[in-house]
């Protein structure tokens, strides 16, 4: 049985609750219970650690969606307000899909920007304007270098599977990407 009250108690809005209902989540997972209220308060950095498949994506995605949704569409910047860095293309697609499904009923544009995929679609998406970018470090760095991705408006940055990204040698790209966004 769905225990939606537990999600409401975390401070999530009606739109998030509708998306959660549509996805059939019954109760928040441990990482969601512990992260969502802290992230919604918008204070400082957070490190979350939990095994795969325990709902980490929704734990960071729902607060990001709430943050963007609080800004009227006409007042949103052209560039993305959230950047999620992920180690692999598979995870990039998976995380982007999960964020999109959680954004149900909201005017929030999400784009997956990963290596090995056509530049044209990515140029088009970035030019049209996107609120949340999910990307692999190499390709994100590439778009920054080309001037097709500007990170001046980033409010939230997520390093998803940070340990994996470090193991894969992405530290330099990540440090450079972080240096391109507001403090
Ligand atoms: P993740 O760990 O973020 O990759 O999520 C793994 C799977 O669990 C995804 O299919 C999510 O949609 C799903 N999921 C996330 N949160 C919940 C929840 N509270 N209840 C049930 N399923 C969930």
Tally of contiguous helical segments: 9
Distance N to C terminus: 43 Å
Task: Give the topology string: H per helix, E per strand.
Answer: HHHHEHEHEHEHH
Tell me about the largest β-sheet: 4 strands, parallel
**CATH class term:** Alpha Beta
Helical content class = 40-55%
Average predicted confidence as pLDDT: 96
Tally of distinct domains: 1
Give the bound compounds. Answer: adenosine monophosphate
Structural class: alpha/beta
- Second CATH tier, the architecture: 3-Layer(aba) Sandwich
Number of strands: 4
Which strands sit side by side, in order, in the main sheet?
2-3-1-4
CATH fold naming: Rossmann fold
Q: Your description of this structure?
A:
- With 183 residues, the protein is an alpha/beta fold.
- It has one domain (7-179): P-loop containing nucleotide triphosphate hydrolases (Rossmann fold, 3-Layer(aba) Sandwich).
- 50% of the residues lie in helices and 9% in strands.
- It has helices at residues 4-9, 14-23, 30-41, 56-69, 89-102, 119-128, 137-146, 162-167, 171-179; strands at 82-85, 110-113, 132-135, 156-159.
- Strands 2-3-1-4 form a four-stranded parallel beta sheet, sandwiched between helices.
- Bound molecules: adenosine monophosphate.
- The site of adenosine monophosphate has 14 residues, from helix 4.
